[in-house]
Design goal:
The protein folds into 2 domains: about 10-50; about 65-180, no CATH class. The radius of gyration is 33 Å and the shape is rod-shaped. α3 (about 55-100) crosses α4 and α3 (about 55-100) crosses α6. It has helices spanning about 10-25, 30-45, 55-100, 115-130, 140-145, 160-175. By secondary structure, the chain is an all-alpha fold.
C-alpha cells in the first residue's frame, strides 16, 4: 500500500536551492524533505533563524566546556603536586638520608616519571579523602571525582617506600581530631579456645 503524495508550492529560487541540496546529500526530493522535517523536530532549531543554536554550535560549546574542565583538572593536579606532593617527597628523601646515615650529596637523585607522578598523586588524593574527616576538606576538593587507582597488580612497586613515608608524615602532621575513624573489622575476632588446667600429679 503506497502513501498518498502531496505537492508543496514554492517559488523557483527556493525549488532550485532545494534540488541542489538534495543533489549534494544524494537524496531524492521527498527523502530530503522528510529528513529536514525530522532534523528540525529533533534539534528544535528554528529554520527562521539560521544563526541560532544548532548541533554544530552545541557540540562546540560542549567541547569548550570539556576543554575547560580538563584544564581545571590538570591545574588542580599541578597545584596539589607543587603544594603538597613535592614538599612531602623532599621530607621523605630527607628522612631516608637521616635513617641511612648517608649525606644527600652521596645519594643519586632519581626523578619520577610522569606516570609515577600521576599514580602517586592519585594515590595521595585517595588517601586524603579516606584519612581526613570530610568536614576538614574543602567542598571543591570533595566534589572532584576520586582518581581511579591502577588495576590490581599494576601498581609501581618503586613507589611503595614513598607511599609509606607519606602516610607516616600525614599521621604525624595531622591532629587526631581531623582523622577519619577506622572502619570496624569485617568479622569479629575469634576468641581463643579455653585451655584445660593441668591435671594433678599422681
Amino acid at each position: 500500500m503506497t502513501s498518498k503524495v502531496k505537492t508543496i508550492a514554492t517559488d523557483e529560487p527556493a525549488y532550485e536551492a532545494f534540488r541542489q541540496l538534495a543533489k549534494e546529500y544524494q537524496l531524492s526530493n521527498p527523502e530530503l524533505l522528510a529528513a529536514m522535517v525530522q532534523y528540525f523536530r529533533v534539534t528544535k532549531a528554528d529554520p527562521r533563524n539560521p544563526t541560532g543554536p544548532d548541533l554544530t554550535s552545541s557540540l562546540a560549546k560542549i567541547t569548550a566546556k570539556l576543554a575547560d574542565l580538563d584544564k581545571r583538572t590538570i591545574g588542580f593536579i599541578r597545584e596539589q603536586e607543587k603544594t603538597y606532593l613535592k614538599p612531602m617527597l623532599a621530607q621523605v628523601q630527607a628522612l631516608h638520608h637521616v635513617g641511612s646515615g648517608a649525606s644527600p650529596a652521596a645519594e643519586v637523585k632519581h626523578e619520577l616519571h610522569q606516570a609515577q607522578v600521576e599514580e602517586l598523586l592519585g594515590w595521595y588524593v585517595r588517601v586524603l579523602r579516606r584519612l581526613i574527616l570530610p568536614s576538614y576538606l574543602l567542598p571543591r576538593f570533595q566534589s572532584d571525582p576520586i582518581p581511579p587507582g591502577p588495576a590490581k597488580g599494576q601498581e609501581d612497586p618503586a613507589l611503595n617506600q614513598i607511599k609509606g613515608g607519606l602516610v607516616g608524615i600525614l599521621r604525624v602532621a595531622l591532629r587526631p581530631e581531623v582523622l577519619a575513624p577506622l572502619a570496624p573489622p569485617a568479622t569479629p575476632p575469634t576468641s581463643p579456645a579455653p585451655v584445660s588446667p593441668p591435671s594433678n600429679p599422681a
